DNA sequence: TCAATCAATGAATTTTTCTCATGATTAATA
DNA sequence: TATTAATCATGAGAAAAATTCATTGATTGA
């Protein structure tokens, strides 16, 4: 009488939402149409509330049904991940470390951490999400990822942040660009430039949030490019300027005619952090990954 | 073969964690000890991994078991809330609007929104969490609350913020306090004062984060008090000073010998927001609550 | 060593779930 | 409009799963 909602109920609700009809949903779930009907009927009688109503030859969710659907969409993915995790445990795996990257230019750096980690922890799988669209903190909190690499610190007691290494965001220009002789650029300098960035919102680009927006300035034009290699090539070809971490500049400095300029007289200084859920603090392989990230960070910036 | 983890499994795992022995857990779950043993045994055989090992006469979780425990602690509360919600639907309720308050002095103001809301939406239950310890954003994202009232905006695509009303944080002092003649106070002025605040971390007190800390100043002493009535009484009795919203000062201004002073020459201006999950944007009673909050906010500050 | 405590196990039983066959309703079609 | 196809609901019976009971084996503490 206490526990009413079972996994199967959520599965049925989601199935109907996805496949419109009970009959089709039943095929997907490898059950008879009748079985689903009975199952939901029973839940309805226990709760005393209708979950759907037959609208013509189709079903339509009631408020209750829609509530259950949202519950299903939230809970089933977690259970499914649980199922997969259990299978992995049985294969001697300890689990999957799902990493989210919010610092797009940091991908190269991440590889330096990943390779040794994979060797030291053969029983841990890695899954790196480098999506331009995903919301880092949400997916961390929703257990879609386990570790987030980000330059943005937020206030949240349930998360643990560890600083990895400091870096400076610099403006990269061609060597014979008109700004190249300057020791640093001002926001006004950028008003006549074409700015190249990754294809994410300006609220997630430090050049905007920490430099341009406070001053009210805008670049003459703003183009988005997915890949930083191409971005730098375009800068070298005097097709625009871009803001990247100083260590990334260093990698291309010798091979391309580019120059790095400070953003503002003091420079735009950032720090990279790992973020994990506080509850995962004692998981050995997560701890190990963070430590190893710090190590690589230290040798890198020295 | 696809779905392995059932609610009952999580229930059993959590029961054992809570009550140490299988026998006791079985009593709580109104099942026989044998039933639990069989159920887990079956899950083990399906996944091919041990969940616990018999350690002497007790059980000890394996890695897998601990993983399942954390899953249980995360998922079961959501299902339990689902169960309760279904019961409410059957009673004609639409659901429970669970509100989290992060602005401690705003409680009085909230009541003005709540009372009309309860009348307009008799089919919605209200549950207000005014905990000094709870983490507002976490509980919102974890579906422990549905609406958060907070002065702190954070960056998160999955949440929707709505500004309710602006207010000014002012320093409240006794009328014959030595600072009373001033038109505003500086951070240095506070270095000789006893500051009274709510019992939350200084990182969640604007007087610290937005006033004292940037200047490096500290009050002579810092005392915490749970209740703002007592706080104001103590201020009137010259036992200290406190920072509260200007509208709260207005309520006591006539009955107590107190005075409000700006914090810094410009004053410390804040805005109150409601935060909801973007996914809940279309829920009618949530929309209604936010609208009604804005309305009350407007009449209040006019 | 003995009694007590606890988990595991197998067999029997109860309960639940599922299917099959069928009916009822609706929507499309001839 | 009559016909047909599609869809969900329902009841009875069959199959499967969960639960209990009774017992065993292991461990601990007295």
Describe this entry's structure for a reader.
2 copies of one chain form a homodimer. Chain A is 44% helix and 24% strand. Chain A has 3 domains: 7-90, Orthogonal Bundle (Arc Repressor Mutant, subunit A); 96-157 and 274-301, Periplasmic binding protein-like II (D-Maltodextrin-Binding Protein, domain 2), CATH 3.40.190.10; 166-269, D-Maltodextrin-Binding Protein, domain 2. The radius of gyration of chain A is 25 Å and the shape is elongated. In chain A, the strands form 2 sheets. In chain A, strands 3, 4, 5, 6, 7, 8, 9, 10, 11 and 12 form a 10-stranded mixed beta sheet that branches. The first copy, chain A, has a two-stranded antiparallel sheet with strand order 1-2. The model of chain A has no long low-confidence stretch (mean pLDDT 86). Chain A has 302 residues and is α/β, with parallel strands linked by helices. Chain A binds a DNA duplex (30 and 30 nucleotides) through residues 8, 21-23, 31-35, 37-39, 41-42, 54, 56-59.
Identify the CATH homologous superfamily of the largest domain in chain A.
Periplasmic binding protein-like II
> Which CATH class of the largest domain in chain A?
Alpha Beta
How many helices of chain A does DSSP assign? 11
Q: Strand-residue fraction of chain A? A: 15-25%
Oligomer: homodimer
CATH architectural group of the largest domain in chain A? 3-Layer(aba) Sandwich
Separation of the first and last Cα atoms of chain A: 63 Å
Rg from Cα of chain A = 25 Å
Q: Spans of chain A of 5+ residues with little confidence (pLDDT < 50)? A: none
Number of spatially distinct domains of chain A: 3
Q: Helical proportion of chain A? A: 40-55%
Structural class estimated from helices and strands of chain A: alpha/beta
How many individual β-strands of chain A?
12
Mean pLDDT of chain A: 86
Q: Biggest sheet of chain A, in brief?
A: 10 strands, mixed
- CATH topology descriptor of the largest domain in chain A: D-Maltodextrin-Binding Protein, domain 2
User: Largest interface, with Cβ-Cβ < 8 Å?
Assistant: A-B, 43 and 43 residues
* Approximate shape of chain A: elongated
Provide the succession of SSEs of chain A. HHHEEHEHEHEEEHEHEHEHEEH
